Amino acid sequence: xxxxxxxxxxxxxxxxxxxxxxxxxxxxxxxxxxxxxxxxxxxxxxxxxxxxxxxxxxxxxxxxxxxxxxxxxxxxxxxxxxxxxxxxxxxxxxxxxxxxxxxxxxxxxxxxxxxxxxxxxxxxxxxxxxxxxxxxxxxxxxxxxxxxxxxxxxxxxxxxxxxxxxxxxxxxxxxxxxxxxxxxxxxxxxxxxxxxxxxxxxxxxxxxxxxxxxxxxxxxxxxxxxxxxxxxxxxxxxxxxxxxxxxxxxxxxxxxxxxxxxxxxxxxxxxxxxxxxxxxxxxxxxxxxxxxxxxxxxxxxxxxxxxxxxxxxxxxxxxxxxxxxxxxxxxxxxxxxxxxxxxxxxxxxxxxxxxxxxxxxxxxxxxxxxxxxxxxxxxxxxxxxxxxxxxxxxxxxxxxxxxxxxxxxxxxxxxxx
Length: 417
Description:
Blueprint: E1 3-7, E2 12-17, H1 22-31, E3 38-42, H2 48-60, E4 64-68, E5 71-75, E6 83-84, H3 86-89, H4 99-106, E7 108-112, H5 125-133, E8 137-141, E9 144-148, E10 156-158, H6 164-175, E11 180-184, H7 190-201, E12 205-207, E13 213-217, E14 225-228, H8 233-246, E15 247-253, H9 261-270, E16 273-276, E17 280-284, E18 294-295, H10 307-314, E19 319-324, H11 335-340, E20 344-348, E21 351-356, E22 364-366, H12 370-382, E23 386-390, H13 393-396, H14 402-408, E24 412-416
Parallel strand pairs: 2-15, 3-14, 6-7, 10-11, 18-19, 22-23
Antiparallel strand pairs: 1-23, 1-24, 3-5, 4-5, 7-9, 8-9, 11-13, 12-13, 15-17, 16-17, 19-21, 20-21
Helix pairs in contact: 1-2, 1-7, 4-6, 5-6, 6-7, 8-10, 8-12, 10-12
């Protein structure tokens, strides 16, 4: 099993380019189920979750599944299997995204209850309630969601709370439904808007994606399309924080700074120099910045997927900060590992109280989920001595060539067995 060894103390300098957004590419790949045509995608990241989705699409019936130099071409002329089996999807939460497309195209879907990172309850009841409103009959049988319909019909549906994958599943299902579907209290993340852009390129009629209310006028069929995946805002934010934490001057390129406004504003409040261009961010690191409280929330608020990285940043801030996690109840599992490195962090319910500035020491630590992995990497960059991070397969799920990118900035990072 691979581990990551990092020797801290190296100041980062240079340019790092951001890959395409995993969380945008996954639903767009699933949208390929909706058409007999070819979906040509560029800027697709080479990460494990994407490979899992491609294997699933091949199982469903894809004749073309190519991932090379950020390019993917998929074509599913006929659905050979409407099942997403447990063995294929147990490691990936996003597997539930094939539920809506399979149901819309084939009238039947059997999808294993999703797995992924163990960061808390992520129930699929909102997906099920929405699809039922469109006319599907759905049962939970032996760990599978089994959905059937003759033809989905457009309706109005209000989400009980905002859900990214729930919004995306409903958009894809409604794209081929009879009539118009109106979705209220939708997730407003950029990945949702990117999915709608891809679907519209395929011939769908979707308005309002990226806002609270989305309208989908169903069409009889979708066709071939080409689409470029948006930059990964979580990867962008991770490298921005790496620059703030351990950088002299770091430029993050090929990104969309407007997607991480909440983070950039927070760094500005701390006294960290951050300059955002149209497609780049330049960070001048400093050893003196102020601790600031943080509360995670849905977009355009501060994303839960950057909370762990922000906590690593706060260990080196002047003063104490309170980090409040509002999305997932088990997303403080990285705290114990940061404490092993010398961090002063106390958990009180949904709050983590971080006292800085503390001298971190290299240690053997274990990644517990995708974003926790990134937080340990950031902490290791400024820790004294050697840190070895175990279970970095979590990191491979969402970060493309992170070790190589950090090396290019001057970090001492290497993979070991």
